[in-house]
Amino acid sequence: MKRKKNNYKIVLIIFIVVTIALFAEIGYLVFYKKDNEKSINNKEVNNQEVTDSNIDNNDNNIDNDIKDEPSNEEDEIINLLKQEEYYIENNLDRYLSYKALNPEKTNKEIITDVNCNIDKDFYTDIENSDLDKGILVIVNKYHALSSNYIPNLTTMENSYTSVAGAKMEVEAYEHFKEMVDAAKLEDIKLFNVSAYRSYATQDTLYTNYVKRDGVDGADRYSARPGHSEHQTGLASDINTASSKAHFENTKEYSWLISNSYKYGFILRYPENKEYLTGYKFEPWHYRYVGVEVATYIHEHNITYDEYYAYFIEK
After folding, report:
1. Going by C-beta distance under 8 Å and a sequence separation of 6 or more, which residues neighbour residue 272?
2. Could you read off the pLDDT of 85-114 as tens digits, one per residue?
3. How far is it, in rounded angstroms, from Cα 63 to Cα 66?
4. Are 146 and 226 in contact (CB under 8 A)?
């Protein structure tokens, strides 16, 4: 009997040990599984973040590439612009910006307008006129002379001007006389009515015009002080300076259009070019630029603003 009790105790102890071991194993498996799942989830999250980051970086790189590289359409526009006769490489960015704002304009118009600074408002970004250019100096709504500038002047003879004591730049005056004398041989009478004007004189004239017609009105036909070609002594208003005279309908005007370039003079403010020159048509206003330049401008039907931008300033 005592032996049976001992056997019973042994079996009970074994049972208890086995049970404890079993529960320990179960507990280990449960906690290990949870920790393993947590670790796996963390790795998946980290991997996904890396993947998302790489995708974002790739997208950003693609976006940057798109921004940095011109589109095929832009490439085509650039190629077409470069084929235009008066294309200037330094103006490319301005051409493209102006083209985007004015898609209806032709490439030729884009080139012409930007070269003449029409992508900017008149009387903005004003530069000093380059006096080193001599007779080819440009004075317009983007280039100005100082108030104390006085050219090399000579007094005009009465047979060549209706204004006593009128003055003109020396070289320009010699060619002006040749032109007037040549016209006289063909029974064409030409004479100066306004040549050199000082800064102060132009200031007075412009101020009076503004009082009469306002700034916008005056700017169409009168230069602001410092911006008048007359201050260079290279320009002359011939026979008249009034629109009411309709000088464009005279034989004198026809002769000048056909012959003035032979003596180095150009019609400075042609008809239908107001948007380029900034001034309405002035059939009487002629500017001396020398025979070679005048001939080119005459043959190619361009303004001096266009010529200066492409051949002198660029």
Report:
1. 281
2. 999 999 999 999 999 999 999 999 999 999
3. 5
4. yes
Q: How far apart are the C-alpha atoms of 199 and 203, rounded to whole Å?
A: 6
Q: Between β-strands 167-169 and 153-155, what pairing exists: parallel, antiparallel or unpaired? A: antiparallel
Tokens at 217, concatenated: 């009105």
Give the tokens for residue 234: 């290279």
Query: Which amino acid is located at 15 in the chain?
Result: F
pLDDT digits (tens, 9 = 90+) for 2-51: 444 455 566 566 666 556 656 555 555 444 444 545 444 554 445 455 44
Looking at the DSSP bridge assignments, the partners of residue 287 are 235, 266
Query: Which residue in the block uniquely carries the two structure tokens 């002006």?
Result: 176
| Closest by CA position to 209, among listed 200, 197, 217 | 217
Whole-angstrom CA distances from 166 to 126, 161, 205, 232, 277 are 29, 7, 17, 13, 26
| DSSP letter assigned to residue 196 | -
CATH label, 123-313, candidates 3.90.1570.30, 3.20.20.140, 3.30.1380.10, 2.60.40.200 = 3.30.1380.10
Query: Kind and range of the H or E element at 145?
Result: none
Non-local (6+) Cβ contacts of 134 within 8 A are: none
Query: What confidence score (pLDDT) does residue 207 get?
Result: 98
| Neighbouring C-beta atoms of residue 211, cutoff 10 Å | 9
Task: Yes or no: say if 281 and 127 are a contact pair by the CB < 8 Å rule.
Answer: no
Tens digit of pLDDT for each residue in 176-208?
999 999 999 999 999 999 999 999 999 999 999
Distance between CA atoms of residues 167 and 233, nearest Å: 7
Q: What are 154's strand-pairing partners?
A: 168
Tokens (6 digits) for 178: 């040749």
Taking all residues of the chain, what is their mean pLDDT, rounded to a whole number?
87
> What digits encode the pLDDT tens for the residues 238-266?
999 999 999 999 999 999 999 999 999 99
Helical spans, DSSP H, in 91-244: 92-101, 107-115, 170-184, 199-219
